[in-house]
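Researcher: Good morning. I'm working through a list of sequences from a screen, and I'd like to move beyond sequence-only analysis. For each chain I'm collecting a predicted structure so we can compare shapes side by side. This is the next one on the list. No need for commentary yet; just the structure.
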Amino acid sequence: MARLRMRVLHRDPKTGEIKLRVENADDLWHLHNLILPGDLVRASTYRREEVKTDKVRPERGEKVRVTLTIRVESVEFQAFSDRLRITGVIVEGPQDLGRHHTLNVAVDDVLSVIKTWHPHELRRIEEAVAAAQKPLVAFLSLDDEEALLAQLRQYGVRELATIRAPGHGKMFPSGDARSVYFDEILAKLRAIELGEALVLVGPGFTRDAFLEYVKVREPALASKVHTHGTAHPGMQGIQEALKAGVGAKVFGDSRVGYETRLVEKLLEAIATNQPCAYGPAEVAEAVDAGAVETLLVSDAVVRNPGIEDLMRSTESARGAVVLVSRHHEAGQKLEALGGIAALLRFPIK
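Model: Good morning. Structure tokens for this chain:
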């Protein structure tokens, strides 16, 4: 079943206003990367009324729902908090013009972003809307001691639960312990949205034993399972599977899969001395030379001075700009290279 994603409710090319409905946490991450200092954001929010009295200082009234427009100063997205905090100065509204206010944007909220839109920003909105057709994928990474349940989101892998196997003491003969362990994992799986597929990873035989267990108790769930052996359990095993391109037909079209492949291509270019550049100075040189085919920018540095200019210049020279999330392993590798890098059409040195 397709899930809704960011929905565009209204566009006004003259004013630069795009009105959006937030459908899930992925949309909050997209908005975090789209909304920059100086942009205007309009939304319904709560603000405390000022009650005028004879006293020198006005009394604090009740909080009331108002529609405000703020000029953005900062945007904060904490991974997996399902909330976006946008702080700025009120420029339009029934009260408190010129004062600071923070909009707390959550799933199902509607907001308008008013700005001069760049092509890569409009493309990001289109990607978020188009993602409605992409499957949600769950991961289960397990060995005989611990199981980790996670979801693949557009911004990274979200950890949902950890289940530890019971001790192998007198209370649990080994067969019973395994049943208790598998029952608890299955109960967690039933409680979450698995989407189109469950990717089962991990070392050893526990992974295969669990699949056989599921086939007996939940045949419908078993039909959604893809398995892959990894050298490590836990989050490391999931990252290992992503890097190996496991189940490309399942999650290869996901944002994380796309970004991971590009960063791996960059690392291979560095290792084999193919045309590439990394770090702000080297990338700026490549952009000036018109050599950039694909510019990779970490969302950790997108607001740094000069980065926006490099993105705009790349697009003017018909290069592609890809914003990479820092919330997965490939994104962290890009951040370690200075947060910006490029695959080049020709060498610049």
